[in-house]
Amino acid sequence: MATDTPSNDGLKNGQQGAREGLLGACSKLVAELSHPSETMLALLWSQPTHLSIIRTGVEMKLFRAMIDVEPAGETPTEIASKCEPQAEPLLVGRMLRHLAAMGTVRGTGPDTFAPTPTSNAFAEPAYEDSVLFIVDDFQPALNGMPSYFRQNGFKCPDSGVDCQFQHAFDCKGLHLFEYFQQRDPEMGRRFASVMEAWSKGRPRWFDSEYYPVKERLISGADNSAPFLVDVGGGTGHDIEGLKQAFGADIPGKLVLQDRHEIVELAQLDSSIEKMSHDFLTEQPVKGARAYYLHSIIQDWNDEVNSQILRAIVPAMKRGYSKILINDFVVPNQGAHWAQTCLDWELMASLGARHRTEAGHANKGTYVEYPDRFGATYAATLQAVYAGIPDYTVPTGVLRCYSRITRQNKELLVTIGIIAAAHCEGMLADLVVDMAESGAIDGLQTVVNTGKSVY
Asked: Where along the sequence do coiled-coil regions lie (predicted)?
């Protein structure tokens, strides 16, 4: 294999990104070694069957029945007796054989099976809901994509109220989140569970390798002011994790905001305030150290995103408050399947998309800086600023580590918005609003070429 292939030594030593690197290398190796017919069989036979069995297993509480099975394993008859409702042993045995073939459970002997961390995860409510949402709620929208594109001339949708979701569920003019609220709150609850499950086992934004919370947020924070507002934060997995990570070091209040029916589901530390809020309306929590948006910008088009950000601006304290945006950016080459898959699903459900490094509107946004902030930073910034073709007010850089590309990046930070990612076409009005409201310190010029990034 190539010399730059990730090493197993890195995994043993706990090297950042080593596990992901080995997984990626294994996937590439399988793709290289597989015959086209084998790839077809995997895509069209084994994987759909696998998902069907997992969905059936959730229905009959198969994975819950296996949680307490000892490593030596149990027979289908023993496992079937613990399902809810009790299932035929023959059926359970046929299911378990395919689950074992796919690695979801472990075959320990002739007709004997034991759980794995994956099968145990499918016994958790968040994972059960995720299976229900993807298979029952969302798969119909994905299945109908060819028909949708035939009707619209094979063009990407640009509206969140007229994309494939609306065609699949006959709700044209009703946004996905409005559909949850008005027609199917249970689907909305399952969607919130998907977001919770998505965050499990993943590096968190507040990990020291990703964002320096102590240096950038806790240091200099006002104890009497709100500390962080998690805007559209679902059931609070991010803000609860932040609380657990920093505990008493957090100066000030933590606030979780989302739709009423979602925040009511959140089970949080009593010190975290739950607040119903529509992020298209003015932010009611004033003067917070940070306003955090995770997987929000990706869900909306540029016009709505400008409205979301403008709604926060009046609440910000000049020279103190920050907006933190946590989204994917799809690289020009070698994108991870999680990025490309979610990009397609965003298009189907929300008429939205992941932002990319490619394209004229993004040209020059990613800037390579020295590994450490130093004297060369100012000169480097001065040199690259003229090459950025969009609205920018450079105020600093953000160093981050990508768990997808396993590379360090230092991103341009503009107008005090700490952006873990960027979206084109959203900054112009925000810059003007922030300048007029006095939220930007030291604003000298805004370069206007008719496009915008942040």
From this structure: none
What single string gives the DSSP state of each residue in 188-248? Answer: HHHHHHHHHHHHTTS--TTSTTT--HIIIIITT--TTS--EEEET-TTSHHHHHHHHHHGG
List pLDDT tens digits, range 109-119.
999 999 999 99
Q: What b/e string do you get for 239-262 counting C-beta neighbours within 10 Å, with b at 16 or more?
A: bbebbeebeeebbbbbbbbbbeeb
Query: CB count, 10 Å around CB of 15?
Result: 14
Nearest to 217 by CA among 18, 443, 38, 416: 416
Query: Higher model confidence: residue 392 or residue 177?
Result: 177
Q: Are 95 and 144 in contact (CB under 8 A)?
A: no
Please check the confidence at residue 437 and state whether its pLDDT lies above 60. no
DSSP string, 295-323: S-GGGS-HHHHHHHHHHHGGGPPTTT-EE
Contact between 257 and 229 under an 8 Å Cβ cutoff? The reply is yes
Cα separation of 433 and 307, whole Å? 11
DSSP 70-110: -TT-B-HHHHHTTSSS---HHHHHHHHHHHHHTTSSEEEET
Q: Kind and range of the H or E element at 118?
A: helix 117-121
Domains of the chain: residue spans and CATH: 1-31 (no CATH), 34-121 (1.10.10.10), 125-199 (no CATH)
